[in-house]
Amino acid sequence: MNSLPVLKNNLLHSYIPKHMTAVLVICLVLLGLCIVASLVFGSRPVSFNELIDGLFNPNVDSYGANVVRKRVSRTVFSLLCGAALGVSGALMQAVTRNPIADPSILGVNTGASLFVVSGIAFFNISTANQYIWFALAGAMITAVFVFGIGSMGRGGATPLKLILAGAATSAVLSSLVIAIMLPRSYVMDQFRFWQVGSVGSANWNDITTFIPFLIIGIVIGIISSSALNALALGDELATGLGVRTGVLRLVAALAGVLLCGATTALAGPIGFIGLLSTHVIRLILGPDLRFVIPMSAAVGAIILTISDVSGRLIGSPGELEVGVVTAFIGAPILIILATKVKVSSL
Amino acid sequence: MNNTSVEFIIAGRRQRRRRWIVVTSFLTVLACILCCAMLILGNTIYPIKDVIRVLTGEKVEGVSFAVSTIRLPRMLAGLFAGFAFGIGGTVFQTMLRNPLANPNVIGITSGSSAAAVFCIVILQSSNAIVSIASVIAGLATVILLYLFSRGTTFSIGRLILVGIGIQAMLNAVISYLLLVSAQQDIPAALRWLSGSLNGSQLHTLPPLVISVLVFAPITIVLGKHLSTLELGDQTATSLGVNTDKTRIALILSAVCMIALATATTGPIAFIAFLSGPIAKRLVGVGFSNIIPAGLVGVNLVLASDLIGQFAFEVRYPVGIITGILGAPYLIYLLIRMNRKGDF
Predict the structure, then answer these.
(1) Please, are residues B197 and B77 in contact by the beta-carbon 8 Å criterion?
(2) Gene3D superfamilies attached here (chain B) (predicted)?
(3) B340 touches chain A (CB under 8 A)
(4) Residue B263 is part of which domain span?
(5) Is B32 exposed, middle or buried (0-12, 13-18, 19+ CB in 10 A)?
(6) What rounded mean pLDDT belongs to chain A?
(7) Residue A253 lies in a domain
(8) What local confidence, expressed as pLDDT, does residue B294 receive?
(9) What interhelical angle do B127-150 and B108-117 show, nearest 10?
């Protein structure tokens, strides 16, 4: 009997995936590289001196130094957005127990879009703070609606049902978005640039608005991760292990929607980050959500920043918006997943 | 089989044929009425007498320009695009035995649309090249779909998932192209996202018209085999249908029509998706619903365009109206399929 707690301890608490340290180191190195690349590359080349001036000498007011300062806020914002989207994807996949869940695929982004556009058109909203609340409401309602339709019938929410419900809902919502926009050209112009998904226009004000949502979402994600592990075994087993599945689902889904809604409000709909980062990390570390959820944040941040930098390089002298880049990296992954997932589970 | 049951079957067939004829003629008449309405209605309403005089080549002061330069091309674009989308959609839906497997959902219209936008915005190419590019892109999308969804066993679910993935990519391309084209104005942008008849011009129509005139008859003739294909490959083969050839011919014709319609009007939302199921409900089973589906497509496009033009204070392009009308039907269909456990 004495060995039981020891065994339990070994199995549940001190278990660390094989490559954890290596992954952690690699992620940190990559994050560092991303930050440097994001500061250095862009349509205007900066010299080393300008870089140092921009970062450490607030008194220097040269053009190059200002470019670097602008890139600092952009980099921070893209790292935060990537982290939020990564965790959001991991949470949604865990809650729906579904490998293809991602805010963009489930139509949650479009819901946020509709509410933001309605806000711009009917309530004259214009600040980041107002955008966020509208986007959150839209994301929340859409998530509930899509999941409601997707989980009807036998077998609960299968990937195919969820994805179709998401696609259909997106279609209605985007028609409504255009219908609202069309008579109002000022909304259209504001929206056209927001809709592609970009981190380029970020300022420190956006970032400070965003951080509380990010922290709340990620903290909830990490706290609920071990309970979500139990949920992965199935509702009955999870209940048997003492998890209140209903409450858990609600809280984790709320956190997921909070993260992606806030990101969408500020950066526009950026797709596939959650899908990509979660699958990459799960491939390396295995399915334990206590590691997958925090590491998805790191991987999401890396992927989004790399996409942003490559968008700047590919689109030079202008830039390719990050939403376009992530769609190009992410959609093939979705296709590969679709061909890999067993037909029976579709 | 005794005599009475044979008579019963014959009577049933006659009844279905009668229903098919009634429905088809009704749809044709309705389409004609809508066509006339498209010519008569506008900022100023012209009497039908004047419209007919213009169409027969007479010059009528004030009427000629509006009718022959603005309303006639608009009507023709709607007519042919609606027919093409309706037929193309129903071919895919019947062949894949799933109403969700239609060009709108699995990304074929997005493929053509992306190619057309690219040619127009970046290359500024001529009408002919736009048409060719959109057809090639449509076919390429189909081939990609086929390759990715083949797997060990064919699964319709996988095909739809792959299609949605491809579509996400293509839509990203379209949004980006619209963004870099600074001179591109808003109506043009919307055309390539959801379809519009605004600004249709007579000289852009020939590719679409020719393709419909060539491929629609082929599809209608092969349509007989289509209903056999619907029974499954083995049954169809044993009933004497060359399944592969028929399938390839049907896909080619359908894609050509859809691609050229998309190159002309943009991917009008949900027409390819809605026409087939509506026609099937009207006609019932047993007879090919290709012609009725084409007619339903025409009626939907023209009616939605009229609604978009005149029902609101603002003029909405046809794609917005069909999007708002069509998507709830898609959701309803999903709910029903989920309840029945079709997945």
Answers:
(1) yes
(2) ABC transporter involved in vitamin B12 uptake, BtuC
(3) yes
(4) 67-340
(5) exposed
(6) 81
(7) yes
(8) 93
(9) 140
